[in-house]
Write a structure and sequence with these properties.
The protein folds into 2 domains: 241 residues, Malonyl-Coenzyme A Acyl Carrier Protein, domain 2 (3-Layer(aba) Sandwich), CATH 3.40.366; 61 residues, Malonyl-CoA ACP transacylase, ACP-binding (Alpha-Beta Plaits). The chain has a 5-stranded mixed beta sheet with strand order 6-3-5-4-7. A 4-stranded parallel beta sheet has the order 2-1-8-9, sandwiched between helices. By secondary structure, the protein is of the alpha/beta class. α4 packs across α13. Helix content is 49%, strand content 15%.
């Protein structure tokens, strides 16, 4: 099985969509998603500066759009080689789960765009209500790290791997963690607007719950993993419920990675803007063939990886 992995917020860079939107069909998709999200994603992905695209209400729709754009381009690359189907599985990190849901057929592209619009705006409002932030904690003993977070009133919001998690909470508490990290650990402040995937996001969760019945779903066309606990979810409505719950609950990408192995994933392609998830896989899933899509030049190597996998 070939995993299509969809990155989360923070992986975007100024101008990263520029070479992609030189293709008319991809620019048309970006414009369609712009209409559905109410955000000029063409402008955001080509000329907006780092501060602008760091804004949660812009970053999240931009990340989902980028994933869908690169997926369409990859599909075209494969079709040109005579590959019209492949044994794909789907997973996303945080907001990338919305991209994965669209690729797996749970959402249409328009529904994914509406969902991420509501999610991003609600999370931005929740973040603005109380000053909070996040920091990556790399290394250290996991039990000691969690004890240190608990002592500071912080929450582990992302479990990215055995050696990395993300702490979230009050700004002063995160600053204290940076100043006095757990033994044998490094703490790196993250440039984010709030404590995502914690109880601080409960208002956003409630907002999405109120809109739940407006988001139509279908059951996924292939294995689709959840950040909740790393399981495969075969029911579209259940996946929608998990997407809503996940707004204020931790991301367990470590559990996802363990589950990829259990379910026979043998290759991985990370969609635009790729790099982060392939980096984690290289450390946690050593030996797994993988390719991150960053520019259109990466499409051919990604298609090669998929084709080689099919030949095997």
């Amino acid at each position: 099985m070939i995993l299509l992995a969809c990155p989360g917020q923070g992986s975007q860079k100024p101008g990263f969509l520029t070479p992609w939107l030189e293709r008319p069909e991809l620019r048309e998709l970006a414009e369609q998603l712009s209409t559905a999200t109410g955000i000029d994603l063409v402008e955001a992905g080509t000329v907006s500066d780092a501060d602008t695209i760091r804004d949660t209400a812009i970053a999240q729709p931009l990340i989902v759009a980028a994933g869908l754009i690169s997926a369409q381009a990859l599909t075209a690359e494969l079709s040109a080689r005579g590959v019209d189907s492949a044994p794909f599985g789907y997973a996303g990190h945080s907001v990338g789960e919305i991209t994965a849901a669209a690729l797996a057929g749970v959402f249409t592209a328009e529904t994914a765009a509406r969902f991420v619009r509501e999610r991003s705006q609600a999370m931005a409002q929740a973040a603005a209500a109380t000053p909070t932030t996040m920091a990556a904690v790399i290394g250290g003993d996991r039990t000691e790290v969690l004890a240190r977070l608990d002592a500071l009133g912080l929450t582990a919001a992302n479990f990215n791997s055995a050696a990395q998690l993300v702490a979230a909470g009050a700004v002063d508490a995160v600053a204290k963690l940076v100043e006095e990290p757990p033994a044998r650990a490094r703490v790196i402040p993250l440039s984010v607007a709030g404590a995502f995937h914690t109880t601080y996001m409960q208002p956003a969760r409630e907002h999405l719950l109120g809109l739940r019945d407006t988001f139509g779903t279908s059951d996924p066309t292939g294995p689709l993993w959840t950040n909740a606990d790393g399981t495969v979810v075969p029911d579209g409505q259940r996946y929608l419920d998990l997407l809503i719950s996940q707004v204020a609950s931790p991301v367990h990408w470590d559990a996802d990675q363990a589950s990829f192995v259990e379910h026979g994933v043998t290759a991985m392609v990370e969609l635009l803007p790729g790099g982060t998830l392939v980096g984690l896989a290289k450390r946690e899933l050593r030996g797994l063939p993988s390719k991150a899509i960053v520019t259109p030049d990466d499409l051919a190597p990604a298609a090669d990886l998929i084709a080689d996998h099919l030949d095997d």
